């Protein structure tokens, strides 16, 4: 982060290919495609609090998954609010819950694969860093810390899943979820190209929202079906 120049907000960050208005709702599809996240987030949050429903064997995992699903719910509302009128102030409400979900997912994997205490330390330390990054971004108009905190856990999650042995079955779902996240990032970066190639039916950004919703769906299926492969010491 120190080696890179300041990255300020730019008006171009809030310009999307599909700006259609249906029934008086600005940027309609970008708003509506955020709501699948709400459904899976609410269901996942409720189920993760009941260990008998999901394959959760230690309390540290419950904390991590609860924050993950809470972030997904927050992202649904925050993304919809932002896309009604995209600007620098509103984007925080989309970015903040997404960062909560990402660092929670990373910390949960540390709890599962490495150590429960270390994972919980990561969870609450990273939460503090997320809050600090948002304050830093708003104060100094600099996106570097936020981008770092989003990027590093995103690549660390599949790396951890690959390096450390799985304690549960269905661990391949981690890699599928990481793949869907990458697809979402790719189609979002090709916003206009996707919009043009689909004959202006759906934009890359709207398609990215749908792909992002598939990530917690896949992880929820993993939690539902998995079983312990290696006995826990804790």
TrEMBL record:
Keyword Manganese among record annotations: no
Keyword set, alphabetical order: Membrane, Transmembrane, Transmembrane helix
Transmembrane residue ranges: 35-56, 63-83, 95-111, 118-136, 148-166, 173-190, 202-225
Top-level taxonomic group: Eukaryota
Listed name of the protein: Uncharacterized protein
Taxonomic source organism: Spirodela intermedia
High-level lineage: Eukaryota, Viridiplantae, Streptophyta, Embryophyta, Tracheophyta
